[in-house]
Design a protein that fits this description.
12 strands, globular
Length: 191
């Protein structure tokens, strides 16, 4: 399960992860007309990466007392263009602050609420791409080259995803992640 890979250490997880994707939203609301279309959503919002209707990239991680929630500024993401987005997070860190990357560059946080209590882990086995468990947060647009890593990737490792690996550059992007210098940290890749 995902909890065994990036969740709680008692289950073998690292509590550290990087979520990465190329996205091209055609709308900033979800297909039902509401807010918060999903890029990734593990179990029932235990870990999620999503947008809101004002163009913020957002990340949530569940903790026992209060969830960690982070977001970029409004209008960071616009419709009808491609972006490479990534978030890194270390739930075992006392600061447990997310770092967002957009097109290979660190992007400032506009909202920062670290989680309190203990890391809740990932309660279910499912990872939803482009939606959530209730099937009511459908991403509108296109996604490509989604990947999950079981560590906090460095700036240069994120840059390598954005620019393409040294061995195989493809569309100014991801290339062949099996040739990425951090391939040992790659646990899932959807092309």
């Amino acid at each position: 399960t995902w909890n065994n890979l990036i969740g709680q250490p008692a289950n073998g997880g690292t509590q550290k992860y990087t979520l990465s994707a190329w996205i091209h939203p055609t709308a900033l609301n979800h297909a039902g007309g509401g807010n918060f279309p999903r890029i990734f959503d593990f179990a029932d919002q235990d870990i999620s990466l999503f947008l809101n209707s004002s163009g913020r990239l957002m990340h949530r991680h569940r903790f026992s007392s209060s969830d960690a929630e982070f977001n970029t500024a409004t209008n960071t993401i616009q419709i009808n263009r491609w972006y490479h987005v990534a978030v890194t997070f270390d739930a075992s860190s006392a600061s447990n602050t997310a770092v967002f990357y957009i097109d290979g560059e660190v992007t400032a946080l506009d909202g920062n609420t670290p989680g309190t209590g203990t890391d809740s882990g990932i309660a279910g086995a499912d990872c939803f791409i482009g939606d959530n468990s209730n099937n009511n947060r459908k991403f509108q647009g296109f996604m490509d080259e989604l990947s999950i890593w079981n560590d906090v990737l460095t700036f240069s490792e994120i840059q390598e995803i954005y620019n393409g690996s040294n061995m195989h550059v493809h569309r100014r992007g991801v290339g062949n992640l099996r040739k990425h210098t951090a391939v040992s940290k790659l646990i899932a890749w959807w092309k």
